[in-house]
Every structure is written in C-alpha cells, then in structure tokens.
Amino acid sequence: MIEKKVADALGDVRMLQPLEFIRDAEAIELAWHIRDGLLGIVGGMRPQGANLIIEDVCFPPAQTCECYP
Fold it and tell me: Which residues contact 68 (CB under 8 A, 6 or more apart)?
C-alpha cells in the first residue's frame, strides 16, 4: 500500500504533524482550492522583480525567511 511506503520512506523525518492521508473527495478538493489560492497570495507578496517558483517544493518552515534576504 502506498501509505506504508511513504510512511517508511519518511520514518526518520521529524514531522510537524503526524502523516495523514485524505481520501474524502470534498476535503481533497478544498485542499487543492487552498493551494491554488495561496499561489496568488504568495505571488502578490513577492518583491517586484522577484521570481515565483510555481512547482511544489518542500523545505523547513524555519528557513522560509531565508528565501528573501
């Protein structure tokens, strides 16, 4: 099962919250809607002339401020 493979792969990773898989179609749709909305918010907050990475990336939240010197 994919959930077990992912959990095993992330076994040594310190998570902010326990790993959770969502199967409810309405919750999944809401999550994608929020993700898409955040792109516009984050894009609008970036400094003029800065690039916006639209690919999904992952990094520790504590390092978020390091992106903008």
Answer: 46, 47, 50
